[in-house]
Amino acid sequence: MLLATPRLTLRRFRETDAPELAAYRSDPDVARYQGWSAPVTDEAARAWVHAFAAGSPTEPGWFQYAVELTAERRLIGDIGVHLHENRRQADLGFTLAPAWQGHGYATEAVRAVLADLFESHGLHRVSAECDARNARSAALLERVGFTREGLRRQGTWIKGEWTDDLLYGLLAADRA
Q: Per-residue pLDDT for 117 more than 90?
């Protein structure tokens, strides 16, 4: 376990997580605004889990937290953190299985990661972006304290179309 909340355990990925990861990342609604396409094969999920498990939350680069519902010991999502080389900034992303959306789990998990980044690791800034059509992700970012800093019009070519991106930032000073 790396982080814990009253209902969640945020931990490293395990090989046994691959089927559940493939299941929720294969949902077309989950994949809609993401960089991967559904369905996710078992082989791809195993490769992701292997790569996720090899990362480090304290070293520059991407680290993916497995979000587990503690009471059921069940993987319900993941949170990615890209720690910059300067170790003072990071980018954040999150994915939650549809069955577990709307219960506050993503908000709880993101708040735990942000607290760790700012309070334990002394980060100055965390950034996030989302497809402008993804109202639920934008609302979550705002709910946990991010400020909408901009709109990058037709800034991403994904899945055969240009999409607008909402840009968010959260400073350590904003949390005081």
A: yes
